[in-house]
Design a protein that fits this description.
With 230 residues, the protein is mostly helical. The protein is 63% helix and 0% strand.
Length: 230
């Protein structure tokens, strides 16, 4: 990330959301032998670090674009509340899981279910990471990036769905309650699902109306988020 993008606010945000938040289940429950929570934190942190490193190598200015997400004046007005809601929902997942473990609210799930959820969690992070690495215009806010020469990206996972980054995030969000043994964590997961579906629909409408070549891409790639469904 360019030095100019490493403002104190960005550093604090990265430390909070990338380091502290994934460890919330352990910090809240104080169950230091909870192997699922340790593995969850490792997957989250490594997923972030590896994807950003690879994306920066391929698109050197992308991380600076994402670091400035809250300062873009041309961001769509409807995304200014939606983008923070995604961040809030992402933090609520491990928070609720930690509280569930601390107060023993729900009975949990079997080991086979947890292992299947782990596979889905890793698959979700992998899909989102591939979308980030493939797309030089994967901004943190929805805007038409005329200043960066935005064009349609139709390679990589974008060959199969129009918004693979959201699809991967959704998969990881829904797998988290199962892997962390927390039925109550489905509440923030469902909240995030609603927010992501709304954001996907609005972003897709924006791209079809304002980005050259996107309507043709949409005709070739039928599905926005869920292949075979929507």
């Amino acid at each position: 990330m360019p030095h100019s993008a490493l403002t104190p606010r960005v550093v604090v945000q990265v430390l909070l959301f990338v380091v502290v938040v994934p460890f919330l289940p352990l910090l809240i429950s104080r169950q230091w032998d909870w192997w699922e929570a340790w593995l969850y934190a490792i997957v989250c942190i490594l997923g972030f670090a590896i994807s950003r490193t690879l994306a920066a190598r391929r698109h050197p200015d992308l991380l600076a674009e994402r670091a400035r997400m809250l300062s873009h004046e041309d961001a769509k007005p409807w995304d200014k509340p939606l983008a923070p809601l995604v961040g809030l929902g992402g933090a609520l997942l491990p928070l609720v899981a930690g509280l569930d473990a601390l107060f023993d609210w729900s009975p949990g799930f079997s080991l086979p279910v947890e292992l299947a959820a782990l596979i889905l969690l890793v698959a979700g992070y992998t899909l989102s990471s591939c979308a980030l690495i493939e797309n030089a215009f994967f901004s943190g806010m929805v805007r038409i990036q005329t200043d960066r020469g935005q064009r349609v990206v139709s390679s990589g996972p974008y060959r199969w769905m129009r918004h693979p980054g959201y699809a991967g995030a959704l998969l990881a969000f829904l797998a988290t309650p199962l892997f962390l043994d927390s039925g109550w964590t489905f509440l923030p997961a469902l909240f995030l699902t609603v927010v992501l579906v709304i954001r996907t629909r609005l972003e897709d409408q924006t791209l079809q109306a304002e980005l050259d070549g996107y309507p043709d891409h949409a005709r070739r790639v039928r599905y926005r988020l869920l292949p075979g469904l929507w």
